């Protein structure tokens, strides 16, 4: 996760309160999604950005998580996400993020 996006997450957590923020990821790579999830929940594992050593405990989900999919208008899902759902390993993506959420998130959706 680049430094600008890390700062955006910090700013949102400060402005709205960490208990009122969730992070929604759309990475197409499970390894990357897992690192991004760890970064926003437990802090930047590379100790290089605004989240270095900062454990916000934010709940983080992948857009393909069934919890999120259930909240999206079916027509919007079809238009924006259905094609990617067919070509990506959505289970692997959701599981990678879920593992970090279960391990590090203080807040629940």
Describe what this molecule looks like in 3D.
The chain contains 6 helices and 2 strands. With about 110 residues, the protein is mainly alpha-helical. The chain has one domain (about 5-105). Helix 2 links the parallel strand 1 and strand 2. Helix 2 (about 30-40) packs parallel to helix 6. It is globular, with a radius of gyration of 14 Å. The protein starts with a helix and ends in a 5-residue tail after the last helix.
Element layout with pairings:
Blueprint: H1 3-16, E1 23-25, H2 30-42, E2 60-62, H3 66-69, H4 74-80, H5 82-87, H6 90-104
Parallel strand pairs: 1-2
Instruction: Note the total helix count.
Output: 6
Order of helices and strands: HEHEHHHH
Helix proportion: 40-55%
Strand numbers in spatial order across the main sheet: 1-2
End-to-end Cα distance: 22 Å
Structural class: mainly alpha
Rounded to the nearest angstrom, the radius of gyration is 14 Å
Descriptors:
109 residues, two-stranded parallel sheet, 54% helix
Give a brief description.
The protein is mostly helical and 109 residues long. It has 6 helices and 2 strands; from the N terminus they run H-E-H-E-H-H-H-H.
């Amino acid at each position: 996760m680049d430094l600008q996006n890390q700062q955006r997450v910090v700013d949102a957590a400060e402005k709205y309160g960490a208990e009122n923020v969730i992070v929604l990821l759309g990475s197409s790579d499970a390894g990357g999604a897992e690192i991004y999830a760890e970064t926003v929940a437990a802090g930047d594992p590379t100790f290089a950005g605004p989240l270095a050593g900062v454990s916000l405990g934010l709940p983080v989900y992948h857009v393909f998580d069934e919890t999120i999919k259930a909240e999206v208008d079916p027509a919007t899902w079809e238009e924006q996400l259905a094609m990617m759902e067919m070509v990506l390993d959505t289970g692997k993506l959701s599981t990678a993020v879920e593992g970090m959420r279960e391990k590090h998130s203080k807040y629940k959706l």
